[in-house]
Amino acid sequence: MNSPDRSPEFPRALQAPSTQTTGISPALISQVMDASRQSPRGRVAMPFHKSCDDSLQRMLNALQPGSYIPPHRHGSPPKAESIVVLKGAICYVGFSESGVIDTVLFAGSECPFLGIDIDANVYHTFFAIKPDTVLFEAKPGPYDEATDKQFAPWAPAEGSVDSREFLAKLEELTRPSWKAEV
């Protein structure tokens, strides 16, 4: 049986637009949102870069509440990352090396921040606090799946039995704050 994050029936990412210039329209956002609702993972990306070798990786990332992104960092090679919320809202959680929460930020149109910029080597995750959340993400390329993310050794893997409990605990720890923010 396949885990939700490796479903062969549903892609992790949609096809990149074939145009040299792509407008980020409400229709495009709706397309990615609709796909995230159908995804067993509760999220899907749409890259704008045409190749994993491109020097700038940029994409839309649509996610639904309950989608678990394992805490990770971009450290080998070191890569910073920027996230801008186009629709909905997220709770961003940063961690120390040992897994202690050291940063909680809320981003979205009704939140204190519209986006978040993350230095390289920072363990982090984020989760949707509103349905149909859509982000614009950018980070340096090239993309190599084997080295892009270093997953936190103290957090469960996506699709594991413990991942739902871990996400629920993060939501519980941050909920009083995000309820006040959104």
Q: Say what the CATH topology is.
A: Jelly Rolls
Number of helices: 2
Ends distance: 38 Å
Query: Could you say what the CATH architecture is?
Result: Sandwich
Instruction: Output the CATH homologous superfamily.
Output: Jelly Rolls
Structural class: alpha+beta
What does this molecule look like?
The protein has 182 residues and is of the alpha+beta class. The chain has one domain (4-181): Jelly Rolls (Sandwich). It is 18% helix and 31% strand. It has two helices and ten strands, in the order αββββββββββα. It has helices spanning 26-38, 163-181; strands at residues 43-47, 56-63, 72-73, 81-87, 89-95, 101-108, 115-118, 123-128, 133-140, 150-151. The chain has a five-stranded antiparallel beta sheet with strand order 1-2-9-4-7. The protein has a three-stranded antiparallel beta sheet with strand order 6-5-8, with helices on one face. Strands 3-10 form a two-stranded antiparallel ribbon. It is globular, with a radius of gyration of 16 Å. The chain starts with 25 loop residues before the first helix and ends with a helix. Residues 1-7 have low confidence and may be disordered.
Kindly list the characteristics that best describe this protein.
182 residues; alpha+beta; Jelly Rolls; five-stranded antiparallel sheet; three-stranded antiparallel sheet; 2 helices
Short note summarizing the structure:
By secondary structure, the protein is α+β, with helices and mostly antiparallel strands. Helix content is 18%, strand content 31%.
